[in-house]
Amino acid sequence: MIHFHKVSKHYDNLTALRDITFSIEKGEMVFITGPSGSGKTTLLRLIYLAEKADEGNISVGKWETDKMKESNIPLLRRDMGFVFQDFRLLNNRNVFDNIALALRIREVDEKDLKTRVFESLKVVNLRHKADNYPLALSGGEQQRVVIARAIVSDPTIVLADEPTGNVDPDTAAGIIRMFKEVNIKGTTILIATHNRELFRDTGRRVLRLDNGSLVGEETG
Fold first, then answer.
1. Would you give the end-to-end CA distance of the chain in angstroms?
2. Does an H or E element contain 101, and which?
3. Which of 178, 177, 185 is nearest to 157 (CA)?
4. pLDDT, tens digit, 9 for 90 and up, residues 162-172
5. How far apart are CA 79 and CA 26, in angstroms?
């Protein structure tokens, strides 16, 4: 599903990623961990082509990203859901419309759209907040809206960058449970986090980055 082979990424005199090789199979839920600045966010950005690798090869599903035309990047991203650390919710739209936006861009039928939005809200236990605006929600609720937005299009891959960085430990544990529920349905999930408590006792693969290098793999 996601394959890196000897991938490196440089910014001027800084090497963000160095000779990275790993594979994530379809349906896996994998964590990437390491201290701030270790390359976690850069790695995710290479997967959804916000950046391109300077060396090596990356394949995501049927796509070889180094050979992709710019015009095909939206097709790659169409099969992905994203959970960003800064939420990126639209404060002038309510919860329903924030989640529905991606479906409207794809011109999904309004009846089907409504069903899918409410199903995703049910997964994150926020059906009752559909009419609320983001600023009226707690940090944990906003994060759950972001997860609902990420899964509403039934993506094959979900990428999550520090998805619990702004919430308390109990809320963080609940968010990981939600990701597990989504993963059980077959979605491949990759979670970048510096918080080791998130993957403790999960039984999931954990890739460890340090200073841009992949330094080990363990089981959570």
1. 21
2. helix 95-105
3. 185
4. 998 777 888 88
5. 13
Q: Cβ(167)–Cβ(175) under 8 Å?
A: yes
DSSP helix/strand/coil, 189: strand
Q: Domain segments of the chain: what residues?
A: 1-65+72-79+155-220, 90-153
DSSP-assigned states of every residue in 23-79: EE-TT-EEEEE-STTSSHHHHHHHHTTSS--SEEEEEETTEEGGG--GGGHHHHHHT
159 contacts 44 by C-beta, under 8 angstroms: yes
What CATH number belongs to 1-65+72-79+155-220?
Answer: 3.40.50.300
pTM for the full model? 0.92
Tens digits of residue pLDDT in 100-121: 998 998 889 999 999 999 999 9
> Helix axis angle, 139-151 relative to 110-123, nearest 10°?
130
Give the closest residue to 46 by CA, choosing from 101, 6, 7, 1.
Answer: 7
In whole angstroms, give the CA distance from residue 62 to residue 7: 18
